[in-house]
Amino acid sequence: MTIPSTPDAVPRLEISGLGVAFGGLTVLDDVSFTVGRGETVALIGPNGAGKTTVFNAVCGLVRPHAGGVRINGRPAPASATRLPSAGVSRTLQGLGLFERMTVLENVLVPLSGTRGDHTAEARAILARLGLTALAERPAGALPYPERKRVALARALVTAPDLLLLDEPAGGLGAADIDALAGTVAEVAASGCSVLVVEHHVDFVMGVADRIVVLDFGRVIACGTPGEVRGDPAVEAAYLGLGAAS
Amino acid sequence: MDRLVFLLSSGLARGAVLALFALSLVIVWRSARVVNFAQAAMAITAVYAAFAITAASGSYWLGLLGALAAGALLGALVERGPLRFVRGDDPLSGMIIAIGLVMVLQAGLAMAFGPEHRPMRAPFPERPLMIGEIPVLSPYEVFVLIVAAAVMCALALLFGKTPLGLKLRAAAFAPETSRLLGVRVPRMVTIGWMLSVATAALAALLLVPTELGLNPHAADLLFVDAFAVAVVGGLDSPVGALAAGLIIGILDSLVTGYATAAAAPLAVLVLLTGVLLVRPRGLFAAADRRTG
User: Fold this and answer.
1) How far off is chain B from A111, nearest CA to CA, in Å?
2) Contacts of residue B180 in chain A, CB cutoff 8 Å?
3) Per-residue confidence of chain B (292 residues) as pLDDT tens digits?
4) What's the total number of domains in chain B?
5) Range of B225's domain?
6) N or C: which terminus of chain B has fewer CB atoms within 10 Å of its end residue's CB?
7) Minimum-distance CB partner of B167 among A82, A96, A112
8) Contact with chain A for residue B289, Cβ under 8 A
């Protein structure tokens, strides 16, 4: 299918012909799309469509058998450890917080590889997300919405070029989802590109500039929220099956 | 009363050594999820290095530094060597390699230095100081307590207050997440092993002058007691290692003093069994577990 053009000639993220198989099972087949600078792209699809596998391929956690991933025009790092230095941050579905560490320590971990005292940067991002009062609390002791914000703060503290959000709205109430949408919009406005996997359709329609729809590991639709909403293939594969709203 | 004070104070010194060795087991458990059954053999190998350096230079302090360096080097070699090829999801392989390492190191030491006990002099007198008529700690035991406390404080500062400590803790508890955050997990595991074996070497070096002398098996009993300490305290808990080390050191000393030395291991075993029945993960085990 034709891939719509992105705002810049060199996209932040370029996925071309990506193929991933686990044993004999094809999980991704010829997946191609881009994310431009400052653009927010949502990756949606039914459970098992391969959304998280796309993230894992971008992060070097799974090795594709076909195609490739380029970040800022260069091949994506083969090792997940090099992601932050390539300008990529990711949140996880399971949050992956260090439960016994304080909120501040959690946010300091991605900065610990570079010299100097980064406490001021960490506290600044905590203040931005309304977490200042919780800085010294153990992350594991916080309610779920606050823990989600800590995960987001940890991803944003390195000022990434590309932010990968894995189901950021899952488990949140309406007010928290609105606040999250505001934060994503601010991040994108600052020039950071965002790729978000999410089931919450209203959130996706609200924040995404473009939507890529996956089904059985293949891209079945790609376009603006308005274009995708009316796509019969999407309705049949995803929206028509009673997706969460 | 005099006897009680003496036994308590000497138990405290032995407990500090036990705590230090147990802490070394906790460090390697936290960083690699391995109970290193070769810890005693590796530690005593480093003590032999100290013995050789002290014999050549005449300086106990150079020997002490040599033991730390040899312990760290040995930890790195073992982790980067045989253990690097062990599958992470198979704890048995790590244990088997450790047991093989015990045989190789102890046989190698016996061939190189002989199996006999070699006397190692303490850097300070071992006669107890008297407070009034009551014998308390010897100058060497005071030295042992100060060194153990200093090392524990240094490790607490390292793990709690430095970027390296933050990365070591992150890599220990959530290696996959840590990788995504830029932490070089394999390097952290290696550093964990280096810290662990260096700490164990120091504990063994502090113990040997108070025992029969240096021998390839000189730290075997220390390992058994320290393993009990680590399990009683909680294998994940440095604070547990410290507390349980002092408890078992004092228990050992009191039972030896008031009953017989032969009953001391039995008392430790009873305590270990009791703790395992009531709190199977140890007295100070944390509620959370390691994640991917």
Assistant:
1) 8
2) 59, 80, 83, 90, 92, 96
3) 778 888 898 899 999 999 999 999 999 988 888 889 999 999 999 999 999 999 999 999 999 999 999 999 999 999 998 888 776 667 788 888 889 999 999 999 999 999 899 888 889 998 888 888 888 889 999 999 999 999 999 999 999 899 999 999 999 888 989 999 999 999 999 999 999 999 999 999 999 998 878 999 999 989 999 999 999 998 888 889 999 999 999 999 999 999 988 998 899 999 999 999 999 888 887 654 555 4
4) 1
5) 2-278
6) N
7) A112
8) no
Instruction: Mark yes or no for CB contact A109/B286 under 8 Å.
Output: no
Could you tell me if B165 lies within 8 Å of chain A, comparing CB atoms?
no
Instruction: Enter the ipTM.
Output: 0.85
A-chain residue closest to B287, CA distance: A100
Residues in A touching B284 (Cβ below 8 Å): none
Residues of A in contact with B170 (CB under 8 A): 98, 101, 109, 112
Any idea what the CATH number is for the domain that residue B236 is in?
A: 1.10.3470
Residue B289 lies in a domain: no
CB contact under 8 A, A154 and B179: no
Contact A113 B180 (CB under 8 A): no
Residue B131 inside a domain? The answer is: yes
- d(CA A117, nearest CA chain B) in Å: 9
Q: Does B180 sit within 8 Å of A90, measured CB to CB? A: yes
In whole angstroms, what is the distance from residue B75 CA to residue B54 CA?
22
Over residues B117-131, the pLDDT tens digits come to 988 888 999 888 888
Q: Does some domain include residue B141?
A: yes
Interface test with B, best of A83, A95, A109 (most B CBs within 10 A): A109
Name the closest residue on chain A to residue B162, using Cα atoms. Answer: A112
- Structural domains for chain A: 1-84+195-245 (3.40.50.300)
What is the secondary structure of chain B as a DSSP string?
A: -HHHHHHHHHHHHHHHHHHHHHHHHHHHHHHHS---TTHHHHHHHHHHHHHHHHHHH--HHHHHHHHHHHHHHHHHHHHHTGGGGS-TT-HHHHHHHHHHHHHHHHHHHHHHH-SS-B----SS--SPPEETTEE---HHHHHHHHHHHHHHHHHHHHHHHSHHHHHHHHHHH-HHHHHHTT--HHHHHHHHHHHHHHHHHHHHHHHGGGSS-B-TTTTHHHHHHHHHHHHHH-TT-HHHHHHHHHHHHHHHHHHHHHS-GGGHHHHHHHHHHHHHHH-TT-TT--S-----
Q: What is the pLDDT of residues A150-197, one digit of tens each?
A: 999 999 999 999 999 999 998 899 999 999 999 999 999 999 999 999
The helix or strand, by DSSP H or E, that contains position A58, with its residue range, turns out to be: helix A51-58
Q: Is residue B291 part of a domain?
A: no
Give yes or no for B178 touching A (CB within 8 A).
yes
